[in-house]
Amino acid sequence: MDRNLLVSLAVWTVVVGALVAYVALVLVSETPVTFFGVFVYVVVVATLTGFGILPRPPFVDRLRS
Question: pTM to 2 decimals?
Answer without folding.
Answer: 0.68
